Amino acid sequence: MKNDKNLDELFRDKLLNYEQEPPAYILENVLASVASARRKRKIVFWRIAGVAAALFLAFVAGWQINTRNGQDVNSGIIVGQQTAPEISAEVKPEITPAEKENTFRNIKSKIVEKPGTVNLQLAELAKENQINQISNKSTKPIAGNSKSEQVNFVDESLIVAKSEESRALQPMKSLFRLINQGTKNVANSLQEQKTKALKDDWAVKTIDQQIMEQNQMVLARNETPKKARWLVGAQVSPEYSVTRSSHSQVYASNMLNASANSVDLGGGISVEFRKGKRWSLQSGVYYSGLGQSSGNSNVSSGKDFMFAGADRGSEYFNTNVSIDANTSKMMMNSTAGVIEFSGIPPGIVLGTNPEEKTMASTAVVVSDARFIQNFDYIEIPLYLRYTFLDSRFDVEMLGGFSSNLLVGNETYMESSSGKSLVGSTRDMEPINYSGTLGIGLKYGLSKRISLNVEPRVKYYLNSLNSNSSVTYKPYSIGVFTGLSYEF
Amino acid sequence: MEDFKPIITDCINGSPKAQSMLYHQFAPKMFGVCLRYAKDTTEAEDNMQDGFIKVFTNLKTFRHDGSLEGWIRRIMINVSLEKIRKQHLLFPVEDVSVYDSVNFSDDVIAKIAADDLMKLIQQLPPRYRMVFNLYVIEGLSHQEIAKEMSITQGTTKSNLARARDILKKKVHENFGELIGQNNNTA
Q1: Chain B CA closest to residue A201
Q2: Are residues B123 and B68 in the same domain?
Q3: Are B71 and B131 within one domain?
Q4: Is residue B120 predicted with pLDDT exceeding 70?
C-alpha cells in the first residue's frame, strides 16, 4: 500500500501541472473549424427558413387561388337565380283561396306510408302527365333535378360551364409557377449570403488557412457523390375531413344540412427517392376515404310541415325533394351534390302533390334518418421532402400535389332501423387534384427500417362535384403512421 | 482568479483574436493533460484540437460560477474518454511481475524527468491509462470513475491495480539503476 502511495505521488508530483507547448497548426485548425461551423449554422438557418417560406407560400397561394376559384363559380350561378322570381310571379296569381283548400284536401288523401304504394302512386301521377306539369311550371329550379331544368341552367350559365375544366387546372399551373419562382428566389438569396460570408471571412484569414481551405475544397470536389437511395414504406392514417363548400341560393334553399364530418381510414404504399442528404421525392399509391353525414332541415311550422307531417308531431323533420320526370327517381340536395336514390328508401314517408303551387316543393320526405355520403379515392401523390434534422430521429417537411381517382361513391341512410345503401351522389368528378403539406418524424429502428409519424393537411384544388350550383372542396387532416425500408 | 468574462464574450461573438488569446492562455497546460490520456503525441494533438473546437462551440454554456480552467480540462478529458469508447480498444494482458521492494526516495523522484514518466503512462493500455489518470492525477473516486466510464467499481479497482503493477515494472526497468544506487547509498 505504501509503495502504491509512493508511486502515485511520484506521478502526481511530476505530471499534475505538466505543461508543453502544442504545435502551432492546432490553433489554426481550431480557428478554421470554429469559423466554418459558425458559417454552416448561418447557412442552415437560412436554408430552413427559405424552404419553410417556400412551402408556406405554396400552401397559402394554393389556398387563395382555390378560394377565388370558388367565388367565381358562385358569381356565375347568380345569373341562374334571376329566373326564379319570374316563375313564381307567373304562377302565384293563378291560385285562388278556394283552389288552395281543395288542394290541401287532395294532399292529405295522397300521403302514403308504404313504400310500395308510393311507387304505384308515382306511376299513376306520371301517366296523368302531372309530373311533367311540376317540372315545367311549379317546381322551383333545382339543378340537375329534371331535364327541363338542366336546359334552363345550361342556357344561363353557359360561360361558367365552358370554363369549368380550364379553371380546374388553373390552380395547379399557378402553384407550380409560384413554387418555381419561390425556390429560385430562396436559392439566389442563399447564394448571395454565402458569397458575402465567404468574402468577410477571407479578409481575416491567414495565408495558411486559405491554403488549407483550398485543399479541403479540392478534396471535397474529388469525393465521389453519395449513392442514391430508395425507400419503400407502408402507412395508415385516420383522416378527419372538414366540409368546405358553397352553393347557389336556389340550390341551398332546398339542401340538407351537413351535420357532421366523418373520420375515415386511409393509407397505402409509398416509394421515396433520395439523392443527397436533405432532399427527396416521394410517390406511391394511397387509398383515402372522404365522407360526411347530413341531417334534415328542421321545420316546425309552415305549409310544408303541415303538408308532410302535421299529424306526426314535432319530432319529425322534413326535407324537400324532387322527382326526376324520366326515371321517377327521388333526389335531394346535399352540400356535396345531389343525392340520387336508387329507390324509395325503406322507413321514410313521402308525400307528393303536383298541383300544389304555394309550397317550396311538391314532394316532401318525412324521416328522422340521416344520410351518409362516402367517397373513396385512390391517390397518387408527388411530394417533395426536406430533412431538417438528420440523425437517429429525423425531422422532415413535405409538400406536394396528388391526383385523386374516384373509385367509390355511395350514400347510406342511417335511422333507428339500421343503415342501408340508398343511392349515390350525382356529378362527382372522376379525377381531382389536391395539395398536401405535412411534417414527418422518422425514427430509425435499425440501419434500414424506420418508423414514421406524419401529420398532414390535404386540401382539394378543384370542386369534387361538377354541378355548377355546387362547389365542394373539403380538406382533410390525417396522422400517417407506418414503417419504411431503405435500400 | 483572472476574469475571463470579456474574452469569453468576444469568443462567443466569433472574434478570432479573442479565441487565440484564450487558446494561448490554456494550451500548454491542456496539451499536458491530453498527452497523459493519449497513447502518443499525435493522438494528444488530435484530442487537443477536438477539445478546443468543443470549447469554442460550447463556450456560451459555460456558467461563470466555476473555474474556466477546470471546465476546459473536463472537456479535454471527456474528448479522450469518448475516443477510447469509440475505438472499442482491447487491452492486452501483460505478464506483470510485482516489485514490492520498489521505493522512491526524494532524490530519485528529483532525478526522474516528467517527460520520461509521461512516456511510461502513454505505454499503458488505454483503459488502464484512463483509470490511473482519473484516480491518481485528477483525484476522482472509484465510484466516480465507474460512472464516468460505464464500468463497475470492481473493474476500476482491478484496472488501477494492473496499471500500478505495469508502471512499477516499467519504472524498475527504466530507472532501476537510479533506485539501486539510491538503495546502496542508503
Answers
A1: B16
A2: no
A3: no
A4: yes
Q: Which of B31, B57, B167 sits opposite A34 (nearest CB)?
A: B57
A21 at B interface, C-beta within 8 A: yes
Q: Kindly report the CATH number assigned to the domain that includes residue B131.
A: 1.10.10.10
In a domain, B97, yes or no: no
Range of the domain at B53: 5-87
B49-60 per-position pLDDT tens digit: 999 999 999 998
User: Are residues B127 and B78 part of one domain?
Assistant: no
Model ipTM over 0.85: no
The DSSP secondary-structure symbol of A343 reads S
Residues on chain A touching B20 (C-beta within 8 angstroms): 27, 31
A374, β-bridge pairs: A291, A410
Answer yes or no: is pLDDT of A151 > 80: no
> Residue B59 CB: number of other CB atoms within 10 A?
20
DSSP class of A342: S
pLDDT for the residue numbered A249: 77
Q: Are residues B112 and B180 in the same domain?
A: yes
Q: What is the pTM of this model?
A: 0.42
Q: For residue B12, what is the domain's CATH number?
A: 1.10.1740.10
| Res A81: pLDDT | 35
Q: Identify whether B99 is part of a domain.
A: no
Query: Within chain A, how many helices (H) and strands (E) appear?
Result: 12, 17
Closest by Cβ to B104, choosing from A6, A23, A30: A6
Q: Please give the tally of structural domains in chain B.
A: 2
- Above 50 in pLDDT, residue A142? no
* Pair A363, A351: CB distance under 8 Å: yes
Task: Round to whole Å and give the CA distance between A212 and A199.
Answer: 16
**Residue A233 pLDDT exceeds 80:** yes
Q: Of B87, B116, B131, which residue sits at a domain end?
A: B87
* B121 and B81 fall within a common domain: no
State which amino acid sits at residue A294.
S
- CB-CB under 8 Å, A8 with B136: yes
Residues B51 and B123 in one domain: no
Which residues of chain B are within 8 Å of residue A10 when distances are taken between CB atoms?
104, 109, 112, 117, 171
What integer is the mean pLDDT of A121-127?
46
Q: Which residue among B57, B87, B117 closes a domain? A: B87
Instruction: Identify which of B107, B100, B30, B11 has the alpha carbon closest to the alpha carbon of residue B70.
Output: B30
- In chain B, residues with a C-beta closer than 8 Å to the C-beta of A209 are none
What local confidence, expressed as pLDDT, does residue A265 receive?
Answer: 83
Instruction: Verify whether the Cβ–Cβ distance B23 to A30 is below 8 Å.
Output: yes
| Secondary structure of A267-311 in HEC code, one letter for each residue | EEEEEEEECCCCEEEEEEEEEEEEEEEEECCCCCCCHHHHHHHHH
- Tell whether B171 and B131 lie within a shared domain: yes
Alpha carbon of A391: minimum distance to chain B alpha carbons (Å): 18
Residues B119 and B82 in one domain: no
Asked if the structure places residue B92 within a domain, the reply is no
Chain B interface, mutation test: which of A2, A3, A36, most B Cβ atoms within 10 Å? A3
Instruction: Measure CB to CB from residue A3 to each of B19, B56, B100 and give the nearest one.
Output: B100
Asked whether the CA dihedral B63, B64, B65, B66 is positive or negative, the reply is: positive
- Chain B residues inside the 8 Å CB shell of A19: 28-29, 31-32
Report if residue B67 sits inside a domain: yes
Q: Over the stretch A52-66, which tens digit does the pLDDT of each residue have?
A: 777 777 677 766 666
